[in-house]
Amino acid sequence: TLLVKELKTNYSEDEIAMLHRRASMWLSKENFMEGAINHALAAHDFELAARHIERRSHNLLNSLDRHMLERWLSMLPEKIIWQRSRLILAKAWLFFREWRLSAMDEALVMAETVLQTEALEEQAMLAVKGQIACLRAVSLRLRFREIERSHELSQTALALLPPSAHGARSSAF
Predict the structure, then answer these.
(1) Pairing with 94, which of 70, 84, 103, 148 sits 20 to 30 Å away (CA)?
(2) If residue 58 lies in a helix (H) or strand (E), which one and from where to where?
(3) Are the C-beta atoms of residues 162 and 58 closer than 8 Å to each other?
(4) pTM strictly above 0.70
């Protein structure tokens, strides 16, 4: 608290936000994601926080650490989440883990819509499409008992997903 008081006494709000951003970037580079996200949020830089979460949501889903992902997503404004396909997919995976399959399907529709206008690198776009195919396959199998179509989408997902997407690939299998 003494340090925070000194900081506020000696620096403007913009300077403090810049310091938080710099700390966030450094912590991210060093793989201290909790701190990186907290500093981005302290700077009110929700875009930076969203990028950090997008880069790590894949690992959290693979490790089944959904509680941390839920907490991180809860710190972002909903508007930011629903504008980014990878964050929408993170929510879709959380819905799947909670067996909220209707909500998952709605999130997949939104992810596809956002993906059409989102500027992602090709590998990232293919990974998003693979995750969407995987979760659609799961939904078709569990909700609608459409085994054949589910199998087709699972094969599509496996073709699109990177080898590092262990959780999605195991769901597709």
Answers:
(1) 148
(2) helix 46-62
(3) no
(4) yes
Is 54:73 a contact under the CB 8 Å cutoff? no
pLDDT in tens, 5-57: 888 889 899 999 999 999 999 999 998 888 999 899 999 999 999 988 887 77
pLDDT digits 0-9 by tens, 81-132: 999 999 999 999 999 989 999 999 999 999 999 999 999 999 999 999 999 9
How many of the other CB atoms lie within 10 Å of CB of 139? 20
How many Cβ atoms sit within 10 Å of the Cβ of residue 129?
19
**For residue 168, what pLDDT is reported?**
86
- Residue pair 133/160 in contact (Cβ under 8 Å)? The answer is yes
Q: What confidence score (pLDDT) does residue 85 get?
A: 96
What's the pLDDT at 171? Answer: 87
Query: What do you get for the CA distance between the two ends of the chain, in Å?
Result: 51
Number of neighbours of residue 149 by Cβ within 10 angstroms: 13
Return the C-alpha torsion angle 73, 75, 76, 78, nearest 10. Answer: 80
Assess whether pLDDT exceeds 70 at residue 64.
no
Q: Which token pair is 48?
A: 């930076």
Cα(113)–Cα(58) distance, integer angstroms? 20
Residue 112: burial class (beta carbons within 10 Å; 0-12, 13-18, 19+): middle
- Residue 58 to residues 61, 69, 116, 151, 173, Cα–Cα distance (Å): 5, 10, 21, 23, 18
